[in-house]
Amino acid sequence: MCTGRIDPQFVLKAFEKGADGVLILGCHPGDCHYREGNYNALRRFHLLKKMLDQFGIEDGRFRLDWVSASEAEKFVGVINDMVKKVKALGPLKPAPPLPLSKKKGRGDIQAEAHG
Amino acid sequence: MSGGDKQGIMKAGVGVYFCSCGTNISENIDIDELVRFTSTLDTVEYVKSHNLLCSEEGKNYLAEDIIKQKPDRVVIAACTPKEHEKTFRNVLQKAGLNPYLFQMVNLREQVAWATSDKSSATEKAKSYIRAAVARVALQEPLEEREIDCNTDVLVIGAGPAGMEAALLLAKAGRKVYLVEKNSFIGGRVARYEEVFPKMECASCMMEPKMDEVLHHENIELLTCSEVQEVLGFLGNFVVRVRKKAGYVDKNKCIGCGACYDQCPVTVKNEFDYNLSDRKAIHVPYTGALPNVPVIDCMSCLRFEGRSDVYKQALDQGLITKREYETFKAEDCRLCKEACLFDAINYEDKDEVIEREVGGIVVATGFELFDPSVLPQFGYGVYPEVYTSLEFERILSQTGPTCGKLLMKDGREPESVAIIHCVGSRDKDFKDYCSGVCCLYALKFARLVEKHAPSVKVYDFYADWCVPGKDNQAFLDSIKKWKNIKFIHTTLPMNVPVKKRNGKLSLACTDVSNGKHVVSADMVVLCPAMVPAKDTARLSELLLIARGKEGFFAEGHTKLAPVSTNMEGIFIAGCSQGPKDIQGSVAQAAAAAGEVLSALVPGRKLKLDVLTAEIDENACAECRICIGLCPYNAIVLDKEKNVAVVNTVLCKGCGTCVAACPSGSARSRHFTTEQIFAEIEGVLK
Hints:
The structure holds 2 protein chains of 2 kinds. Chain A is mainly α. Chain A has one domain (3-110). Helix content of chain A is 47%, strand content 9%. Chain A has helices at residues 8-16, 37-54, 72-89, 106-114, and strands spanning 22-26, 62-66. In chain A, strand 1 (22-26), helix 2 (37-54) and strand 2 form a beta-alpha-beta unit. Chain A is globular and about 45 Å long. Chain A starts with 7 loop residues before the first helix and ends with a helix. Chain B is of the alpha/beta class. Chain B is 30% helix and 22% strand. Chain B contains 20 helices and 34 strands. A 5-stranded parallel beta sheet of chain B has the order 10-7-6-18-29, covered by helices on one side. In chain B, strand 6 (153-156), helix 7 (160-171) and strand 7 (176-179) form a beta-alpha-beta unit. In chain B, helix 2 packs parallel to helix 6 (118-136), helix 3 packs across helix 4 and helix 13 packs parallel to helix 14. The longest helix of chain B is centred in the N-terminal third of the chain and has 19 residues, at 118-136. The interface between A and B is medium-sized, with 21 and 24 residues.
């Protein structure tokens, strides 16, 4: 399986179930085990990031990075950095109500997104 | 999610096994606590622990226990699945349980080794166990599939690498189709006089091989041919090759040469890098194999209306006025009339040949970096500045000077300068070292010494790259020649070539800050090796990746040096990266070995089990998956108007599944429901 398999719903599901951060690690661009799945992951990541922002999920909680199997040091660095940032943000908080719809909270919108 | 799977959850009696991995896992995780916790999970029927499940004793215990307990599904919490997933799948199979009704939890690398506090590690392990138990309930039994395979092989390129691979495969009894774009075989090496470091005669070395290739009953040689289309996959490729018309019947021609003696058209010979002339009907050099001339329809008077060339021939006195009048109507038949064997056929046409093969070896070689983009060397401006391949031809007995060291004006030079690393080891051009230039520069020095011992040689180098068991001794022996002067500069690219007093003048500062001004009659550049022109086209055709330098990318630098990202397609020689003949031949042998091991007559090919599938009842024919599939594995079924996955081509990356808006694409063993169950299990 490949980062190209990552359905944005997986990320949403993780936040819904209480994850404080989601980190996706894939092969470097141009070096994908499955040729180009990581480019698709990258596109989906940017789109999903915009959506998460609207849900009030802070920037540091969702990250995509490239780590190859031989980059132990980078792997450790990225994980530690992610943990540090998520710890600084604290547990995932319910978002303030959106200005357009007073009644809708983050959970409602996610539930809709899942269909 | 289908109703059937939900029933599956209800029925799943999961057996969970913990492995302590000696003390690797138990030292940092409380296994007793994990066993207690796991027993409380709904679908878990029983929990066991063992000291070392991967040992022979452990595997036997596991198999016997599964037979005894009859679980519906199994979770094993041990090391990374990279290490023992396959081991345990085999045990399950032996115990009569489908190997895909099994999930592995990585307690060693991801928990015991990564989390230092024992109670946190135990808690973390619990969430992984919960995830695996939730997931395994949704897993489906999957069956391994096998298909027949073709064991014939296509080899592209008939240089030293392509010929070696073709011969080895042919000797093993495989049918080989050897495709070569030129009219001759032997590749670049056909142009060399001698090869380093032992100064072996290149044609004496190559000709027996070439002869074997020409006469081997298992090799079908297709010269003047290019691969046009490749469909399929390992064991089942269909290739289409365009064989260009050569207008000479190779079965009738005896290679006497009567035809080209008569040809009135003279053009530059590209085989000699335009340093000599040839006729429109020609062999590239004396001794070329196969010894069958071809008509170059770009210069032959009969084709393309080349009356301008014909006029030139008249002006140069090559034909008489009467001949000009007779033949300017593009009806020259001189070669056909000269041929005693009726071998010339003006009606010959290009043909497209289709062949079925199981594997492909790509050995398309290299070209040289074009030094005319570096104005400091004056290549293309001063006639006496040559590339190394041009100089090979000057030194060759079949070359433009018949092997005499002569300048273009016919005089023997008094001095020759050689410049290393042209366009190499420079981040603005090619940042790699081609690894052969130092050695052929030394070969040039030795050949100059042999041809004209009084000629002085100046060698501008940066570092010596002479690895291997023979090459240092070769360098040391050349250093003893009194007429050679080595000039050690940090960057040979900074040695400008200028014209002064009718000679070429080279000035530079060496590494010890010494100033040198050298006057030379001939300058030989050693440009970087770059991929052959066709590399990009073939990369698209064969769907094989290229590295940033443009050469074909190997599967793994160390462990899979001749594999590509496509199963069944292998690379050899300089198409994979710069190297010498020895390295190319070794890679060719490796590629032949890979083919022989991958494709065995009578043996079926196992297919990937974990592929995608599309539910035809839910597919809305949006075709998003077809555009995204990196393996061209999805096609549209035009009758049913649904997308269909070719499970032979599918590698199971799951890109189509993530993109499918209707949810009709599924990844076997990685369904959305299974992954959701895993996420929920971890986070519960």
